[in-house]
Amino acid sequence: MREFRVSVLIFIICCSFIGCKAPSNDKRTANNTTKQTKGEREFQEYLDRKKNEYIGKKIPAILVKTLKGKTYDLSKMQGKIVLLNFWFAACKPCITEISSFNELQDKYKSKNLVILSVGTDKKEVAKKVVDEKNMRYAVVADRKDIAEQMEVSTYPTSFLIDRKGIIRQVFIGASDFDATHAYTEMKPHIERLLK
């Protein structure tokens, strides 16, 4: 029960900071700026610790079937670079990222990048988003179990996995609702793995 309460508390804290921006140079009271900076710093430290838990580890065996019926086994995708994304329909930053993922898919598909987006919503909800947003990459629905297996508590979360199945980068949450944010943040890491 204690673990559940801690998980819920972490989830609430994480969700409250998603999309927060660093304070600008506008005139604020010293106390307000200090509190905001401290909270943002603590959240960033939490995210950094979480990322470090994953980086350098092999992706576990995960078998999924997309909405289009294609099956992926992450333990057997050696030779491909995989961007494993976790999302849900009511998550504004998750939806905003879609255009970036479409661009990354278009740009790097021929270079063996596979974007695999694991949604936690029911199939009908996910399918509606896929159609409305023209998602051009592999989408899986109704798989909260995989999010739990990967200990995803902040959305969106994406894992960049190299050709050997090793997690090389983790992108947790969104610091900006700008549709190009995910593209500009992830592109250099993808290109590094392509070399």
From TrEMBL:
CDD domains assigned to the protein according to its UniProt record, in alphabetical order: TlpA_like_family (cd02966)
Pfam families (UniProt xref): AhpC-TSA (PF00578)
GO MF entries: antioxidant activity; oxidoreductase activity
Record-annotated Thioredoxin domain positions: 53-195
Record lineage: Bacteria, Pseudomonadati, Bacteroidota, Saprospiria, Saprospirales
Record protein name field: Thioredoxin domain-containing protein
InterPro entries from the UniProt entry: AhpC/TSA, Thioredoxin-like_sf, Thioredoxin_domain, Thioredoxin_ResA/DsbE_sf
UniProt-listed PROSITE patterns: PROKAR_LIPOPROTEIN, THIOREDOXIN_2
Top-rank taxon: Bacteria
